[in-house]
C-alpha cells in the first residue's frame, strides 16, 4: 500500500509554528518598544542628573567663592563625569569653562551618537548662565542592539523547537487516526471488523464509535438486502414455477375444440406475480426514501377515506359470502398522504377478507380517541398466534396457519402497512379481536385543525 504524505500533520505543525511565531513577534515587538522606552527614559534621567549635580555644587559653593565666575571655575576643576562633556556658557552664549577639562582632554572623545542638552544654571543666583551637557548614547544603543539580537536569534530558535515538538505531538495525536485508517482499508463487507478505538471518551474515540455504528448499520442494511433478495426470489419462484408447469403441459398436450381452461389459471398466477412485484417495488421505494422521508401530507378525514375504500372490496366479500361493514365512522381529521392511506386500508381489509372464514364478518371502525384517529379492522378468521405477533410486520414472514390457509400470500402486506403508518408518525398493533379472529388497530395523529377538506364523493 502506498504510504500517503502526512499532510494533516504538516499543516497542523505549520499552523502551530506560524501561530507561535506571530505571538512571539507580537510579544517581542511590545517588549522591545517598552524596553527601548525605558532605556531612553533612564538616559534622559542620567543627563538631567549630571546637570543637577553641577547645579547643586554651584548652590553649595557660591557662598564660599561669592562670585559666579569664581564658583564655576572651582567646580570645573573638581567635577569629572564619565561619558559626559559639560560646558558652562555665559549669558552672552560664549564658552566659560568645560567641567573636568584636563581630564577630558586626556581621555578619548565621546562615542557617537552624542546628544546635547542645555539647562539653566540657576535663575536666581546666576541668571542667564547655562549648563550644556553632551551625553553619548552609544551604551544605550548598544544595549538596544543586543536586545534586538537576542530577539532575532531567540525567536527563530524557539519557533524551530516548537515546530519539532509540534510535529512530534501532532504525530502522537494523529496516531489513532492512522491506525483507524489502516484498519478501515482492511475491513471487508459484512466481515464484522471494526475500527480500533484507544479512548472512547475523547474526540477521536467518539468519531470512531460513530463510524463503527455506521458500519453496523451498513452491515445490517446489507444483511437485510440479502435477506430481501433471497425471500423475494423464493416468493416469486413458486408462482413462476407453476406458470411454467402449466405452459409446458399446454404445449405438450395442445388443447382441442378451443379448450381454454389453462388460461384462467395462468391469469391467476400472473396476477399473483404482479401483486408480488408491486409489493416489492413499494418496499424498494420505501427503503430508498428512508424512514424520515417526507410524505405529501394534506388535510383528510380518515372516516371518508375508509368510506371510499370499502365499496371496492364488497365484491370479494360477497363472493365469499362475508359481511363487510362499518360499525362506527366518526369524524377524524388527519394530515396524510392521499395515495398511501387508501393503500393502508386496502391492505388491512384484504388481509381480513383473505384470512377470514367463508360467511364470516369483517368490521371497520374509525373514531377519535386521546388525540389520535383510531382505525380498527377486525375479523372472525383464523387469528394470529401470540408468538407470531412480534414478527407479523417483518417482511416475508407468514405464520404456519396463514401459509396453510392461503399459500399464495407474500408476507409483504403488513410490512408495507407498518411503513405507511410509520411515515404518518403513527402506531399499528395486532391483537386478538372480540369476534374471535384478529384486530388490527392503527393510531394516527389527529389533526389540530378541523378545516380538512372532504372529497367530492364524501358521505356528507
Q: Looking at the structure, what is the overall shape?
A: rod-shaped
User: If you compute it from the alpha carbons, what radius of gyration comes out, rounded to the nearest whole angstrom?
Assistant: 51 Å
String of helices and strands: HHEEHEEHHHEHHEEHEEHHEE
The number of strands is 11
Low-confidence stretches: 455-460
The computed structural class is alpha+beta
Percent of residues in helices: 40-55%
Order of the strands making up the biggest sheet? 6-8-9-11-10
Put simply, the count of helices is 11
Query: Which percent band covers the strand fraction?
Result: 15-25%
Q: What value does the average pLDDT take?
A: 78
Distance, first to last CA: 73 Å
Main pleated sheet: 5 strands, mixed
Key features?
single chain; alpha+beta; five-stranded mixed β-sheet; 11 strands; disordered C terminus
Polypeptide structure, described:
- With 460 residues, the protein is an alpha+beta fold.
- Helices cover 54% and strands 17% of the residues.
- It has eleven helices and eleven strands.
- The strands form three sheets. It has a five-stranded mixed sheet with strand order 6-8-9-11-10. Strands 2-1-4-3 form a four-stranded antiparallel sheet.
- The C terminus is likely disordered.
